[in-house]
Amino acid sequence: MTDRDYYEILGVPREADAAAIKSAFRKLAMKLHPDQNPGCKVSEEKFKELGEAYAVLSDPQKRAAYDQYGKAAFQGGGGGGPGFGPGAAGFSDFSDLFNEIFGGGFEDMFARGSRGPRNGPQRGADLRYDVEITLEQAFRGMEREIVAPRAQACEPCSGTGSEGGAPMETCRTCQGAGQVRASQGMFRIVRTCPGCHGRGQSIKTPCGACGGRGLTQSERKLAVKIPAGVEDGTRIRLAGEGDSGLRSGPPGDLYLFLSVKPHTLFERDGPDLYCRAPAPMCKAALGGEMEIPTIDGERTKITIPAGAQTGRRFRIKGKGMTHLRGKDRGDLHVEIFVETPVNLSAKQRKLLEEFATDCGEEAHPQTQGFFDSVKKFFDAGGDAPSR
Ligand SMILES: [Zn+2]
Ligand SMILES: [Zn+2]
To answer: Would you identify the CATH topology of the domain 1-118?
Structure first.
């Protein structure tokens, strides 16, 4: 994996859109392509770097993970790390785009020179599993059972793809080289042999159970622990729970992509929660206590001062979300809006009318100020009021 910043490699700003990234990639790929620079190690390295950067930035999920965690998002704890080997998700996207530009031969370019026939162990593919949880579940954390599909080594052929596990024979198409040569337009293309898929050897009789793939699909139940405080977009890596590898290769990883459903009462910003609460007009005028629900299912109180207006904010410390690391909780921010009473009875209406008659200017200073401004506006002949 390269040390350089992916945006820097592509020469685009961090806020570049998908089209700009694609176009930057296209230009650089044309320039750095190994067939344009035969034998030049520097451009070959740069070309690989470019592929790595593009595989991440062209995938919205990976790009978001990169923006948030940097390359740590793609570095596994043990050996290899997911992401960029053949069979990883980003590789095929890159390959598609490459083929669109250069007309085929992408995978071969990486195989060429580095290895001969791809006959050795191959790491299993990484899998992605999307999980949607509620804000309450994100607050408490939870254990969840998921049923994840995965490809496993076929039992009848022990993962060899050959009927009864019989040994393979040298491929007749490529004579065991794993590659065939062809030229296409301005490029010399070395293709993976279609007869043996680059292995140099082919199966005499494909295994009936797996069709010669060496893998069969199965489902497995996994108990997944989702920690308290997770955010929308969090990825959880389950090492070794992806597809099985081929020819004794290590298994891939399973990635859980968490999304948190929007909540009816609370909006979240990191560890803090925000909520808008209605305050009855009389309570806002007279002052008093008001109950506010909290994410933990409890209630808390705020004290409204007499004469509180719409938009008044209150901060309740420690009633927000749990932190992913650490015990403290964020804060709950409450913004009140004054609710005008409706559906008045005859008696209520009468009381309110009496109240209105009794109300002087000093009870509504903002209204008074507003009409003063309007008066100045007309007195000045319609121009803006002078201050
Ligand atoms: Zn072959
Ligand atoms: Zn089989």
So the answer is: Helix Hairpins (1.10.287)
